[in-house]
C-alpha cells in the first residue's frame, strides 16, 4: 500500500514523515495555497518560510511524532537555521505526500516478462489481405 511515508536522516536522527490527505489539507490551510502550489513554490525558489516549516512540522506529525515534539524540532532545526538548509527536505517530504515515496512499488506487482506473454503467431499472419504497401488495384 502506498501511504506516502518517507524516512529521512534529518536534524538529530532518522525520522518518518508522512503527508496523507488530512495533513495535506492542514498544509493547504497553513500556507493559504494548495499542496501542489506549495511544491511549485519550493521547487522554483518562490517559497515563503511558512511553506518550509509547515511541510516539515506537519510531515513529522503525519509520520507519527507527537505534535509538541514536532513543533520543538521544527523550531530548533528549521526556524532557528537558515531556510535554505531545509528546502530540499520540504521538497522531498511534499513530493512523497503527493506522489508516493520513491521506494514504494507502483501498480500491482511486477509485469510478466516478454517470454511469458509473447505470442509466436503474428496477428496479421495468413489474413488473406494484401500487404498495405502494395498499390490498390485500379
TrEMBL record:
Pfam families in UniProt: Phage_TAC_11
Region (Disordered): 101-138
Compositionally biased tracts (Polar residues): 114-130
InterPro entries, alphabetized: Phage_TAC_11 (IPR021791)
Protein name: Gene transfer agent family protein
Organism per entry: Rhizobium favelukesii
Amino acid at each position: 500500500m502506498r501511504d506516502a511515508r518517507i524516512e529521512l536522516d534529518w536534524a538529530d536522527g532518522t525520522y518518518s514523515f508522512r503527508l496523507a490527505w488530512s495533513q495535506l489539507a492542514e498544509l493547504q490551510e497553513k500556507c493559504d495555497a494548495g499542496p501542489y502550489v506549495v511544491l511549485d513554490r519550493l521547487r522554483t525558489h518562490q517559497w515563503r518560510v511558512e511553506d518550509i516549516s509547515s511541510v516539515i512540522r506537519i510531515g513529522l506529525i503525519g509520520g507519527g511524532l507527537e505534535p509538541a515534539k514536532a513543533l520543538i524540532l521544527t523550531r530548533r532545526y528549521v526556524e532557528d537555521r537558515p531556510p535554505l538548509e531545509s528546502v530540499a527536505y520540504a521538497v522531498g517530504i511534499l513530493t512523497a505526500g503527493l506522489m508516493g515515496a520513491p521506494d514504494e512499488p507502483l501498480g500491482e506487482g511486477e509485469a510478466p516478462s516478454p517470454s511469458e506473454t509473447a505470442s509466436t503467431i503474428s496477428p496479421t499472419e495468413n489474413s488473406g489481405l494484401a500487404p498495405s504497401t502494395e498499390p490498390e488495384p485500379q
